[in-house]
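Fig. S4 source data, part A: sequence.
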Amino acid sequence: MRPTSSFSIALAILIAIAGFLINLAVAAGSGSQWIFFLAIAIAVIVAFSVKVAAQWERVVVLRLGRFHALKGPGLFVIIPIVDTATTWLDTRVITTSFNAEKTLTKDTVPVDVDAVLFWKVVDPKTAALDVADYKSAISWAAQTALRDVIGKTMLADMLEGRDKISGELQKIIDQRTEPWGVNVISVEVKDVLIPPALEDAMSMQAQAERERQARVILGDSERQIAANFAEAALSYSGNPTALHLRAMNMLYEGLKQNATILVVPSTAADSMMLGSVGGIAALTTALQQRAAVPASAPADKGTQSGGG
């Protein structure tokens, strides 16, 4: 039962004031106050008879305990004592949060799931007359449906397929609430919480999977490199001169960075026709000494010769 609206109260006050003024004008000499009391009675009746419903509201009116009409939106009038505006229903979309705590999944993992239900009243008469408290009924129906879906779903499917779970929940809840005049628009799963120990184990599993993939990729890279080396070996097998030039280029690339030590396996030196290891060392020393001679050495020598 909604309190009397401000419009009906203002209208009752205007009627009472009008009756008082009429009583002063008509019955001033006789001293009779019946017009004023009549105006007060009419004002009280108007205050309880005139109702105003908002655009999104529908009102169920009972007459002597039986359903009479569905009123609203806007202004409507009821008969006091005979009629009763029992239920005011909101026909807008309503959101209801619900959850399931410590519920076991199909693979016996306890989870906490939070979800949101979007629904609206499409049949105000049914929602008011067939359900004692339709809002509480919808909330409990959503919770039980969520627990049923969790018990039939594996944890991996729940973590990966939230849209699928939301669709199943919407279908189940809509079937339960349709006889109550309520339409379920959508269900959204907000969060799925798992035990911390299981979360750590899943993190370690994901890390191990990443390492396995990295090793597989590395092995595939080594296989490709070996294939390229085999192809290069076939190119050099019939051309010893090209192999020798390649070896000299590799030696030069290693020395031009001012390297002090150059390590070359003896088997590689023989296969690349670079001579003995001693020859390679002598060549390395000569190149280093040549690089260490300062650019100003010839100029200083000329100056000393002129002085002598």
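Fig. S4 source data, part B ends here. Residues 6-88 form one domain.
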